Each structure stands twice: as structure tokens, then as C-alpha cells.
Predict the structure.
Amino acid sequence: MEEKSFLNERGVTVTNARYIFTVRKQPQTVALSGITSVTTQKIDVKWFLIVPLIFFGMMILSSSVMTALVFWVIAGMIFMFLKAKHIVVTTSASGASKGYTSKDGVFVTRVVDALNNAIISRG
């Protein structure tokens, strides 16, 4: 059977035989024959709630309104730039494994779709 490519972008390759991705600049290869299911996992950045509370406390302790305003602007900027992590999770007979991770949820969904299509094509 000839190897057919389903996705080859951003360092992620999905064929009907292999799933290749990079973790900390190290390529990882997983045989598709062992994968039984593929899902996504979303990890929200929960600590962003703590940051405004810290700055609120600093505002109360500060004697200057301008200093408090600067603290609130910094907290707002941190809040705006925090994004959730999306992870491709593959399940095999030996259990679930976390794979490709990105803050781009749309691309992670495309990776999962490509993996599911590759599994289906194997029969």
C-alpha cells in the first residue's frame, strides 16, 4: 500500500502510516496502526484570574491613582494576550498520549481531522 499524505504543515505530517510532530525541537513519530482514537484537549490558563487580584491589592496599597491605573493597564494587557493550549491526544492499547500542542485551536482541529481520516483510510 502506497503511503498517502493527509497533512503536511507547520512541522506536522500525517500519512496513512505515520503521525510526525515536533516536541521541544525533537521530532516524534507515531505509527498510525497503534492508534485507536484521536481527540483534543484544551488547557485554559487559569492563573490569569490571579494577576488582576494581585494588581487590585497593589492598587489598594498604592497611594497614587496613577500607579494604580498603570497596574490595571498591565493586568489588562496580560489578560488579553493569554491563550489556551490545545493538545492532540491519541489513544492506543497502552493508553492516552499527548502529542502536538499549539495555541492555534483551528490548526489542532485540522490535525485531529487528518488523523481521523488517515485511520479511516487504513480500514
Notes: The mean pLDDT is 85. Residues 42 and 86 are 5 Å apart (CA to CA). The first strand starts at residue 5 and ends at 9.
